[in-house]
């Protein structure tokens, strides 16, 4: 099973620029987590600090009892063996074939003979859908294939933690859907702890068990996916809706006066540009297209308010969405079930009372009959939670 990663009070600056401060979270063992955030908010720096490629100014990163933010080189090296990293562009050596790229960590860090190297490389390349592509050079293949080759290389040392930097960047939506499925399939097969850094909303909505978001040098939230997906935090709602109105600006930081204007509807950027907004509603916080669509100014979270259903968080939604929470991807038929699913559900149900009400409603609305029996929850309790 994967290993838990505990981050405590992590702070990082480059010169006078503070990237983020006091970031604390736990990546639960064997679960898939996503870190979201607008461009430039330090997602990649965060990922690198988990591998010890960036040293934070303060804080700890505990992996298997070792604080990799402060440990000695030898321990860092040993702990890194537990981790596989897929960088944005695959980070392949351009002059080596895919086969040699994927074999590289095995030849560098183990004493395996070439026959074993071949067995492992072929197995991992097949896992990411690159069987038979070994002889190709990185320059001869598409960006999606390069990413998958980078993923195969990240897998050869059988990591218990996999860190993935923007797996969707440069990919079309179909390739992004494939790599999303691949990450879930991998988790089902090897039960590793996975952290994906991305700003792809679709991936964030359908892949992870847990989601966090970095914004303005802070971790806005981190927890079960239902928390962020039902959040009424303005930056989160704007980000999920992909809208310009809200606190996130082109230069990451809008000035406060602009935000105030937008939120009061007294003239957002769209108005000044003479653009239409759906429904003519001035910069409503909860107005995420395709998620919250109920009338009324009280609709801040933009959740659970299907027309004619009484505007309730937790109500059923068309297309299988519940309370604005789309179904999570499941492994491809024929693969094992994800072991993380039950572990996560146990944890979430244990801590349910600590979560925001909308998240609770979303979680309860999504329970299967088997879940309800397991946790002793009656259907009417779940419905009542959705109504409150
Ligand atoms: N080695 C470095 N030296 C100085 N500044 C750096 C260094 N690495 C990153 N930064 C700065 O830290 C900030 C965060 O960068 P990072 O690449 O982590 O953002 P990101 O959220 O991953 O962005 P994107 O989504 O666009 O990839 C940026 O302002 C970047 O310029």
Oligomer: single chain
The fraction of residues in strands falls at 15-25%
From N to C, what is the helix and strand string? EEEHEEHEHHHEHEHEEHHEEHHHHHH
Helicity, as a percent range: 25-40%
List keywords for this structure.
2 domains; 12 strands; binds adenosine-5'-triphosphate; alpha/beta; single chain; 37% helix; six-stranded mixed sheet; Rossmann fold; 17% strand; four-stranded antiparallel sheet; 388 residues
Q: Could you give a short description of this structure?
A:
Residues 289-313 have a biased composition (Gly residues). This protein has helices spanning 43-51, 73-80, 98-109, 114-127, 143-155, 173-190, 201-206, 225-229, 234-241, 256-264, 269-272, 340-350, 357-365, 369-375, 379-387, and strands at 5-14, 17-27, 32-36, 58-63, 66-67, 83-86, 161-165, 193-197, 210-215, 218-224, 248-249, 252-253.
Account of the protein in words:
A hairpin with a 2-residue loop joins strand 11 and strand 12. Helix 3 crosses helix 4 (114-127) and helix 3 (98-109) runs parallel beside helix 5. This protein folds into 2 domains: 5-222, 3-Layer(aba) Sandwich (Rossmann fold); 233-301, no CATH class. It is α/β, with parallel strands linked by helices and 388 residues long. 37% of the residues lie in helices and 17% in strands. It has helices at residues 43-51, 73-80, 98-109, 114-127, 143-155, 173-190, 201-206, 225-229, 234-241, 256-264, 269-272, 340-350, 357-365, 369-375, 379-387; strands at 5-14, 17-27, 32-36, 58-63, 66-67, 83-86, 161-165, 193-197, 210-215, 218-224, 248-249, 252-253. The longest helix is centred in the middle third of the chain and has 18 residues, at 173-190. The chain contains 15 helices and 12 strands. The protein has a 6-stranded mixed sheet with strand order 6-7-8-3-9-10. Strands 2-1-4-5 form a 4-stranded antiparallel sheet, with helices on one face. The structure holds adenosine-5'-triphosphate. The site of adenosine-5'-triphosphate has 11 residues, from helix 1.
């Amino acid at each position: 099973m994967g290993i838990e990663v505990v981050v405590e009070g992590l702070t990082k600056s480059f010169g006078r620029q503070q990237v983020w401060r006091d970031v604390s979270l736990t990546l639960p063992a064997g679960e898939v987590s996503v870190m979201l955030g607008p461009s430039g908010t330090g997602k990649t720096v965060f990922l690198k600090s988990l591998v010890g490629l960036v040293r934070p100014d303060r804080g700890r990163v505990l992996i298997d009892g070792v604080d990799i933010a402060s440990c000695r080189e030898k321990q860092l090296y040993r702990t890194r063996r537990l981790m596989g990293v897929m960088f944005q562009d695959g980070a392949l050596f351009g002059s080596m074939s895919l086969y040699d790229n994927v074999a590289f960590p095995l030849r560098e860090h183990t004493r395996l003979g070439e026959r074993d190297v071949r067995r492992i490389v072929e197995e991992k390349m097949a896992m990411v859908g690159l069987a038979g592509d070994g002889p190709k050079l990185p320059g001869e293949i598409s960006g999606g294939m390069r990413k998958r080759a980078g993923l195969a290389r990240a897998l050869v040392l059988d990591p218990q933690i996999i860190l993935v930097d923007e797996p969707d960047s440069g990919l079309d939506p179909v390739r992004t859907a494939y790599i999303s499925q691949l990450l879930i399939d991998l988790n089902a097969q090897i039960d590793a702890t996975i952290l994906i850094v991305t700003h792809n909303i679709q991936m964030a909505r359908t892949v992870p068990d847990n989601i966090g978001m970095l914004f303005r040098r802070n971790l806005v939230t981190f927890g079960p996916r239902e928390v962020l997906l039902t959040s009424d935090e303005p930056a989160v709602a704007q980000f999920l809706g992909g809208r310009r109105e809200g606190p996130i600006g082109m230069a990451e930081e809008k000035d406060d006066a602009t935000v105030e204007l937008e939120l009061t509807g007294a003239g957002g950027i769209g108005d000044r540009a003479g653009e239409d907004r759906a429904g003519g509603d001035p910069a409503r916080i909860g107005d995420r297209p395709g998620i919250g669509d109920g009338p009324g100014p009280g609709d801040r979270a933009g959740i659970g308010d299907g027309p004619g259903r009484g505007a309730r968080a937790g109500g059923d939604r068309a297309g299988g969405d519940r309370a604005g929470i789309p179904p999570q991807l499941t492994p491809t038929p024929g693969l094992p079930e994800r072991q993380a699913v039950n572990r996560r559900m146990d944890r979430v149900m244990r801590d349910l009372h600590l979560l925001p009400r909308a998240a609770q409603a979303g979680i309860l609305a999504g329970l299967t009959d088997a879940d309800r029996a397991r946790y002793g929850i009656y259907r009417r309790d779940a419905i009542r939670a959705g109504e409150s």
